[in-house]
Every structure is written in C-alpha cells, then in structure tokens.
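[Automated response] Your request has been received and processed.

Submitted sequence:
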Amino acid sequence: MRPRRAFTLIEVMVAVALLTMIGAVVVGTLRNSLKARDMLAQNDGVQQSARVAMERVSRELRLAYLTSSTTAVNTYQTIFIAQDNDPVDELWFTTLSHRPMYKNTHECDQTEVTIWSEPDPENPNLQVLLHRESSRIDEEPDKGGVILPLAHGVKRFDLRFLNGLDGEWAEEWSTISTETPNRLPRAVKVVLVISAPDLEEPDELVDHTFVTTILLEYAEPMARSVFALGTGGDDMGDLQ
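Generated structure:
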C-alpha cells in the first residue's frame, strides 16, 4: 500500500497566503462598495433637500401678487421686498400659493412668506435657510405664522430680479420704494449653494449649486422695445 502524502509546510504557507490575498481583495471591494453607497446616499440627500427647497420657493414666487387697493380703508398690506445680504438674501412677499391643510378652516390661498437664514448649529460657517408662512395677511408681514427650515448647510442663497420696464436685473427689490412702487419683478433668478462633507476628505466640504429662474404670473409683461419691431404700420400700432 502507498503511504498517504500530507501537505508540506510550504504548501500550507502558500495556501494561507492565497487566502489572505483573496480576503484582502474582498475587504477592499466591500469597503469601496460601502463608500460608493455612502456617497450616493449623501448626494441623494443633498439633491432632495435642494429640490424640495427650490420647488417650494419657485411655487410661491410664481404666484406672488400685489393688491391694487393700496389706499382703501382697512385694507391689508401686500409687499415684495428683497434685501441683498451676504451670504443669504432675505425676502418678504405675499403670494397665492397657500394650501389649507384642514377642512372648514378660515383660510384661503393668500399668505405671507418670509425667507431668511440663521447660523447652522452643526457648522457655524454655514446657514440654515428658514421659511415663515402666515395664512393671514396683516400690517406686520415679518411676524406671526409658522417657521420651518428649508435647507441645512447653505453656503449661499442669491436672488436677482428682472425689471420688466427696462429689462435690467437688480440685486434688490422693494414695492415701497419710489423706483418700483407696488410693482412685481417680471422674473426672479434663484441660486442655492449647499455644502456637504466630502467622503474622500471628511474635513473638506463640497459645494452643490442649484439654479433656476421663475417667471411671476401676476407681474406686468415685459415692455416691448422699438428696436425689436419692424418699420411697418402694424408694428407701430402694436407698440401703442
């Protein structure tokens, strides 16, 4: 009978080395997969937060309105005021975007909205974008209502306003000023920048920029330029 041949020490060492290499490859692949998952989850979180904030701001700005009864007795005050601040602009306006949440409540679609920011508790260098909504329009458009956060980790919130009369973009807007009395901008450009940690360098932040332009439905249409028209009589009649 032939004696059984056992593994030699070299063969055992080779087998252990191969198993170690395979384990290292598996662990590395698993680590990369988990890292990719965390990056996708973080990116999805930032995208969702920004999308919700931009959609709400866009809907409310699109339905911004002003009442023409500015001298009536006991009338309410409607405004559209924006201040250019660094890094987050502030905005007060009235809009028709309110959605009553409960049945038989004494509410309509009119509402006051304020958007501003405060330092982020998790990172003092960033801001929390805050949103205030009051379903009752009164003489104090910056008070009352419900305050909720719109987005965290905000590095920049910039607004620009299109003047429908001259076609110029402005950094600020006020319906109580002599330049734009009781008049809405034709459009508003919104830039939102959110900073989130970089998974490659946890101590570093990565900026995510979101931009949109909203056309205000209740604003006066753009003034047509004479240079954009022809020289025929019909065009001149349209200009009138």
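Summary generated for your ticket: The chain has a mean pLDDT of 82. The first strand starts at residue 80 and ends at 83.
If you did not submit this request, please reply to this message.
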